[in-house]
Amino acid sequence: MKRMIFATGNVGKLKEVKKLFAEFHVEILSLKDLENPPEIIENGKTFEENSLIKARTVFADYGVPVFADDSGLVVEQLGGAPGVYSARYAGEKATYAENNKKLLEELKRFPEPHQAKFVCVASYVDGEREFTVRGELPGKIVHEFRGENGFGYDPIFIPKGYDRTLAELSLEEKNKISHRGQAMAKLKNELLRLNLLG
């Protein structure tokens, strides 16, 4: 069976991706399955750069095909912020609540609607080839926290065409439209096109 590494320590992400690749003869390992996972320094300026940094770093150590992703929230009125700093917008060890609070504080000086989008870039590296694919979910930021599902900015983000926040959608509903779901589906299709899946 073919082995691939998904360069993440996030159990939720791993579960989603294993489901996506379930029909193929491929074993997907995460960073938690590796004995000495490398330290990954995400110092890129774009989602593409950070995604490739993760994949290249892990491939350099293990020599097994690797895919990775990097994602975040892009708010139009804030010139694209928080962007690649989405997870640490309010500081290096910031909680989801602290990041949300800072974002809403920054948006107080702008009129609604606050147009925004979630972006996810997935990358693949195997020593011979490298590529990235991108998924985007447009929507807007609202000033009230709504919903118990999801994480991060989900409770204050309403996807385009919906009247509920991402945190008010079920996991099934969210996965159908999510930026990560889109990017991973494109990644899978590209791997199929290149005959890299069993």
- Number of DSSP strands? 6
Q: What is the rounded distance between the termini?
A: 8 Å
In the CATH classification, which architecture applies? Alpha-Beta Complex
Envelope shape:
globular
DSSP helix fraction: 25-40%
SSE arrangement, N to C: EHEHEHEEEHH
Structure write-up:
The mean pLDDT is 94. Strands 2-1-3-4-5-6 form a 6-stranded mixed sheet. Strand 1 (2-6), helix 1 (11-20) and strand 2 form a beta-alpha-beta unit. It contains 5 helices and 6 strands; from the N terminus they run E-H-E-H-E-H-E-E-E-H-H. It is an alpha/beta fold. Helix content is 30%, strand content 24%.
TL;DR of this structure?
The protein has helices at 11-20, 47-62, 96-107, 171-177, 179-193; strands at 2-6, 26-30, 66-75, 114-125, 130-141, 157-159.
